[in-house]
Design goal:
about 250 residues; alpha+beta; Nucleotidyltransferase, domain 5; Dna Ligase, domain 1; 3 domains; three-stranded antiparallel sheet; about 35% strand
Length: about 250
């Protein structure tokens, strides 16, 4: 079997960055590093140059030389919809797809890029996962990766990664694809998300406030700890944090 292209998968969260290293035969290493204070604000990167420098340093410390990158895009920065349309050509779909987001996008729709994945077809209809993201996001992400010495080859919404995990889960367990329903719990720093998959295909995401940051702040206050120390102890499973009233 021919090896696949060497790639990095990078997910930038509010608290940490996760980097999956694919040497050509699937992910072989997962790197996680805490993002310095001030680089993220309200779910957005405050400085693309500073984040690029930070990523470059993390990769250097771990001896990673791969340069091609797929960057994860959180749901807060893109629109993801499951849509059902009459069967049409690729050209017709390019014209019609933006109108599927008219209830979500209040600005100029030309400011967005659109993409899709075909889930299923019949003689008269097609079932799709459609995505819209600002062109500015792609441009800024390209510059940020270039600053890190990397080449951006694609953007992927969170649900695409979860979908891949579920697909592999079904293969490993000898399950028939697209038969089971799933709910994926994503414990984020600012919010907790539940991604629902109907018969293995993404359907919708629900947000629950607050996220893990509130738990960290409560534990830090109750035990008189610095919030960063409280988070480290919580992530390591320290009993004094997990068993605290907070």
């Amino acid at each position: 079997m021919a090896s696949r292209k060497k790639l990095l998968g990078i997910d930038i969260g509010n608290y940490s960055v996760k980097i999956a290293v694919n040497q050509g035969n699937g992910p072989e290493e997962l790197i996680q590093a805490r993002i310095p204070d001030g680089l993220m604000k309200e779910g957005r990167i405050t400085s693309g140059d500073a984040m690029g420098d930070f990523l470059k340093e993390v990769l250097r410390e771990h001896g990673v030389r791969i340069r091609s990158v797929f960057l994860g895009v959180p749901n807060s920065l893109c629109f993801v919809r499951r849509v059902h349309l009459p069967l049409m050509t690729v050209g017709q779909l390019r014209v019609n797809l933006p109108y599927e987001f008219h209830d979500y996008i209040s600005q100029d729709m030309d400011r967005y890029i659109y993409d899709y994945a075909v889930i299923g077809k019949t003689e008269n209809s097609m079932d799709l996962i459609a995505v819209a993201a600002e062109k500015r996001l792609a441009e800024e992400s390209t510059l940020m990766m270039r600053r890190a010495g990397l080449k951006l080859v694609g953007l992927a919404p969170d649900m695409a990664g979860f979908s891949r995990v579920l697909s592999v889960f079904e293969q490993v367990n000898g399950m028939e694809p697209h038969q089971a329903d799933y709910a994926v719990l994503d414990l984020g720093d600012r919010s907790i998300k539940i991604h629902f998959f109907s018969r293995g295909v993404y359907d919708v995401t629900r947000n629950i406030e607050p996220g893990l940051r509130r738990l960290v702040d409560a534990a830090a206050e109750q035990m008189g700890l610095d919030r960063h120390i409280a988070r480290i102890r919580m992530e390591s499973g320290a009993p004094e944090v997990l068993h605290s009233e907070a």
